[in-house]
Amino acid sequence: MRKKIVAGNWKMNTLPAEGVELAKQVAAGKHTVCDCVSFIVCPPFTHLSEVSKTLEGTGIAVGAQNCAAEAKGAYTGEVAASMIAALGCKYVILGHSERRQYYGETSGTLNRKMEQAYANNLVPIYCVGENLDEREAGKHFDVVKAQIEEVVYNLTPEQFGKLVIAYEPVWAIGTGKTATAEQAQEIHAYIRKVLAAKFGAAAEECPILYGGSCKPSNAAEIFAKEDVDGGLIGGAALKAEDFLAIGKGFAK
């Protein structure tokens, strides 16, 4: 059985005290969700220490939204994977569509970030996905395949065994367009096939999360699909009630 994961990407939202309060609310309601679901919260860097302390012993894991491509040194403003790990983080989001789009992250950069994550025992949540132009041009399979081949294919089998993939249909986030559960399943199944071409049967064990406007109203339908193992949640992760309700998309 693959791990069922609901991860919350808070992005650049909440102040530290608000983040701690949100974490407390998620922890308080976790008992209402099936034990089969693993929750992860990914606050801004400024909150990681306090949120980690708040969630200690609750079974809710903490992740960072990014890490530096270098181990340490004269890189003003960067945050090293070792620093993140030292604060109690277990996960790190890498290759998010916003990082690719706004900050020019390339596969070359992401290979170095993956290396840093693994060197510090962090589990990468590696994001892939196509934009609207690529989807309308029918290039979505090619785009996702390249993002996997250029980064994930460089992992050792042992590293691959500690990877989470998140598929983001960038065209369905904040555009008014919606990806159907069938579209999600189609691309998730394709991703698993691309992973299997390199890693064989181990691809069946890799969790693939859906990251496109997943909310309480559609979570159950999306999570029911064979190759969808959970969600990477944006806006809905900022309300504990909604975040927990998405977790309930997995039947007990």
From TrEMBL:
Quaternary assembly: Homodimer.
Transmembrane segments: none
Native source organism of the sequence: Alistipes communis
Keyword terms of this UniProt record: Cytoplasm, Gluconeogenesis, Glycolysis, Isomerase
Recorded family membership: Belongs to the triosephosphate isomerase family.
Binding site for substrate: 9-11, 174, 213, 234-235
Pathway: Carbohydrate degradation; glycolysis; D-glyceraldehyde 3-phosphate from glycerone phosphate: step 1/1; Carbohydrate biosynthesis; gluconeogenesis
Gene designation per UniProt: tpiA
Subcellular location: Cytoplasm
Entry function: Involved in the gluconeogenesis. Catalyzes stereospecifically the conversion of dihydroxyacetone phosphate (DHAP) to D-glyceraldehyde-3-phosphate (G3P).
Lineage: Bacteria, Pseudomonadati, Bacteroidota, Bacteroidia, Bacteroidales
Coiled coil residues, start to end: none
Catalytic activity from the UniProt record: D-glyceraldehyde 3-phosphate = dihydroxyacetone phosphate
Protein known as: Triosephosphate isomerase
Main location: cytoplasm
Molecular functions (GO terms): triose-phosphate isomerase activity
GO cellular component, one term: cytosol
